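**User:** You know discrete backbone vocabularies at least as well as I do. Would you mind producing a protein record, from residues through to fold? Write it directly below this note and I will take it from there.

**Assistant:**
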Amino acid sequence: MTVRIAYIEEPPFYWTGDDGRATGADIELAEAVLRAIGISPIEYHLTSFAELLPGVQEGRWDMNVPIFVTVERAQQVAFSVPVWSIGDGFLVRSGNPKALTSYAAVAARSDARLGLIPGQVQVAAAKAAGVSDDQILLFKDQPEAVAAMMAGKVDAFAATAIGNRATARTNPAVEAVDVDGGKSEAGLIGAFSFSKSNPDLLHAVNMQLRHYLGTPDHRAGMARYGFTAAEIDGVISPTAPEA
């Protein structure tokens, strides 16, 4: 049985390696779980964030890499048990010249511009904190947003704290800043997602996730990509419900 997984370019969770193959913390997690339940081969489909949910709904692939769980998204797809809990962060130019440490700090400066990706939870978080539409610039993906920040078009790019830390480690011209209050959006938990018409695969994945999450092998694998114990412990539950 072949399972098709869609992913986007967002290190350290998932991205295309120099060899052209999908790689990252959540790619390794997917492979460990699927192989444990006897699924091989695994096909990877690079797509855009906007296409993740429609693609799995329409059967273009069988599951998506983990993204944040929200009530609105859960109306469209079936989520697995959570696999991580992560806060928001900003990527800013080195020195953080406008001292942007929260969405409220962006809202308080009319000259501050914030880069965001449409449909991601950071858009709602920014607007809830008072960031105005004319302060927001939208980009198709993380690489485009970071390039715009480096070109001076935005002062900060909002995404996951861990993803921004990974980007900052490879680019000395930028730094990552954890956003104050960055876990306010439903705890910001992430999970794999599936078509609601594919309950058998969801059930099998959930069963194995419950066995695997929090094990020494799982923790070691995630640590290689910069995940901390807190980002894993926040979702470990022996009585996690079926998604």
